[in-house]
Amino acid sequence: MRKQLRLSGSGGQGVITAAIILAAAAVDEGKEAVQSQSYGPEARGGASKSEVIIDDAPIYHPHVIVPDLVLAMTQKAADKYYKDLLNPDGLLVLDEQLVPNVPDFPHVVRIPITKIAVEKVGKPLFANIVALGALVRLTGIVSFDAIKKAVANRVPPHTVDANMKALELGWEAAAAKV
What are phi and psi of 93, to 5 degrees? Predict the structure, then answer.
């Protein structure tokens, strides 16, 4: 049941944090998981990607070879990261407002991730958790309970309620796309 996921965006959007949380949720469920990341020299605004591999069997190579899912939170990320060998049966998930030019790919899901974070949670800071809720709903890679626990364990205590709301909103936004 190996799944390879690439989460991409710009520095500061939280794709690395989201990948760490996803990997933690998988481990909590007894699965194997590895997470890696890369980002440009800029602290904020540069290209950023994080990869997660989740499997029931041991994982010997920690980097994604053929992603089954690519999340692109910006146009630059979509242009840069989806093309390199996304599984033809894979899923490309885009932030609807920040990726206006939809790449030509058969399986694309567009969700207004950042818009949901701003309008319903109050800050774009929560977009990564909205995305995480959507990804879990779209893939079923971990249970919703596992991702909730992982989020609660990884975010600052004073933000748990807002992050739970963001996670649920992402989960709900993906319901119509499944």
Answer: -110, 125
Strands (E), the chain: 3-10, 32-39, 47-55, 69-72, 91-95, 108-111
The residue behind tokens 């909205």 is: 130
Instruction: State the residue range of the domain holding 75.
Output: 3-176
| Structural domain count of the chain | 1
Here the CATH number for the domain that contains residue 111 is 3.40.920.10
> What is each CA distance from 56 to 26, 53, 119, 152, in whole angstroms?
10, 10, 38, 24
pTM for the whole structure: 0.94
Q: What is the pLDDT of residues 44-100, one digit of tens each?
A: 667 789 999 999 999 999 889 999 999 999 998 888 877 767 888 999 999 999 999
